[in-house]
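Can't paste images in this forum, so I'm doing it all in text. The chain is below; anyone willing to post the predicted structure tokens underneath?
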Amino acid sequence: MNAGNVAETCRLIVDGVSKVYIGNRDVVRKILAAVLVNGNVLLEDHPGLGKTLLAKAFGRVLGLRYRRVQFTPDLLPADITGTKVWRQNKGSFELVKGPIFTNVLLADEINRAPPKTQSALLEAMEERQVTIEGETIKLEEPFFVIATQNPLEFEGTYPLPEAQLDRFLMKLSLGYPKSIEDEVAIIKARESWRKDDPTEDIEPVISREELLRMQNLVEHSVFVHDDVVRYIAAIVRKVREDPHVAAGPSPRGALALFKLARAWAVMNGRDFVTPDDVKAFALDTLPHRVNLKPEYAFEDVSPDVMVLNALKSVEVPKRFERE
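Text version of the structure:
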């Protein structure tokens, strides 16, 4: 397996997802990049734009086990992780695993549950393990979370804790269809499916074992020049040092850019990272990690603008290929 093989497989995966999700293929490709580095993705947008459909399609196309949790105000942490139940006939406690024991966890409308419940995902999202009543259990590889949320101004939503937001590799928005032709295509696709959930008919493009091999190639076989690493660090520091920022991206944000740039390189058939690979994900990985100072919170100040300013001001490295 090499970068060229992986790039072709990635194209087949994107095509498979796009059979049921009719929308922005760039978003599909970026989610796939996150999958290649075992990263969690947060999809925020208005209802009815296909967030849940997209997440389910990925689970099917990748040939992985996936579970869905519908987040509601009365959801408890144990409803996600599981608990230990006393079995009278055995005279002992038995572990009843929750839906988090899967490969792909769809956390649907994650911000409709209170922060206590949302925090049940923290350990799994970062360390790929779950602790239940003192017992730590490793999750099967691969494991990642695709979460959907409605905009915060919607009634009945809670803001996600900063620690949880930071554990999402990137935050994406699907957006409304770009043209009337796209809208017509969505309507006609629904007519041809004759059902509301077309993901049931999706055939896997790859197996779990093949995906693990692809992830291993991204992790161990992609060259990143030291100048590109410094470029990533400089962008993150520039955003962090902006006078409007109270708390900027942590080193985890820099690592997110680093990981996604490697995946993007492989998806484009290369075994080395270019500055353009880094730029492709800056607006997806950094803004949701920025907390503004209180005096600027209600002004027309956007973390996106701060990231764009950083990209303009940081010098782009000239060296990035293997020497």
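The longest helix spans residues 251-267. The two ends are 23 Å apart (CA to CA).
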